[in-house]
Design a protein that fits this description.
Layout (H helix, E strand, L loop, with lengths): L2 H15 L6 H15 L4 E7 L5 E6 L2 H13 L3 H8 L3 E5 L10 H7 L4 E9 L2 E10 L7 H18 L8 H29 L3 H14 L4 H10 L17
Antiparallel strand pairs: 1-2, 1-5, 3-4, 4-5
Length: 246
């Protein structure tokens, strides 16, 4: 699919999901996946700041990306950390064994097969609330069109978090961010239970949670809570369409 068509499809899917009680994590996961489709990158992830100002992992396109996001938080270093702290984009930064900018983060990223990184701040009215992170397996530069599209998707992600409202006070913003971060914990617990029950990996477990939520018109967090509480078994979750057999 052409880039323009992918972007239009992303905007349509985003608009379709921005209902009054939309699930922030589900929407941002969708955006992470669409970033990989539309931009010349291999993985994408979103980190948000808690009301106290600490970065927290919120969504990603893959399990390996989640591992890298959590590493940045634990080591307090990496592209998302720098991007959030100073509010400046990081574009076309190559990851090499001799790069000393992020001594703890870079070797792990390379070990997972990534060799360049790009990170964009997520801002609302001068306040940075998080960062959108992209990784590539190959060295090389993103072109200007890729950067413009990436920044546009970062802006869309910011709007999605804030439910595309025209005015929000700090109390409302903090409440939304807190709920999203709490939901992430529940979803990680549910992924573990599904993976154990169905003998699948964490990416597959998460895809089953999303597929079931969408097929039954339920929020991703709602389904995760049901799994964690035991009212819904991992074996009873719907399979993603691509994984269904006849």
């Amino acid at each position: 699919m052409a880039r323009e068509s992918l972007l239009i499809a992303t905007l349509v899917e985003l608009a379709d999901n921005l209902v009054d009680d939309f699930d922030v994590i589900d929407v941002l996961t969708m955006l992470s996946l669409r970033c990989v489709d539309a931009i010349d990158v291999d993985a994408a992830g979103v980190m948000l700041a808690s009301p106290g100002g600490e970065l927290q992992f919120i969504a990603s396109s893959s399990e390996s990306m989640r591992v890298l996001e959590l590493l940045q938080i634990q080591a307090d270093e990496g592209p998302c950390v720098d991007c959030y702290k100073d509010g400046n984009a990081i574009i076309n930064h190559e990851l090499t064994e001799t790069d000393q900018r992020w001594p703890n983060f870079t070797p792990r990223a390379i070990a997972l097969g990534f060799h360049s990184v790009h990170c964009l701040p997520m801002r609302l009215r001068g306040r940075t609330i998080g960062a959108l992170n992209f990784f590539r397996q190959e060295e090389g530069l993103l072109d200007d069109d890729d950067v413009i599209l990436a920044q546009g998707l970062a802006d869309i992600a910011t709007i999605a978090i804030l439910q595309h409202r025209t005015s929000l006070d700090a109390k409302t913003l903090n409440f939304q961010l807190s709920n999203a971060l709490d939901s992430r914990i529940i979803i990680e617990q549910a992924k573990g239970k599904v993976a154990q029950a169905t003998n699948c990996d964490m990416d597959q477990a998460f895809n089953r949670l999303r597929a079931h939520a969408r097929n039954h018109n339920q929020g991703l967090t709602t389904v995760a809570v049901m799994v964690v509480e035991g009212s819904l078994s991992g074996n009873d979750l719907d399979l993603p369409k691509a994984a269904q057999t006849h």
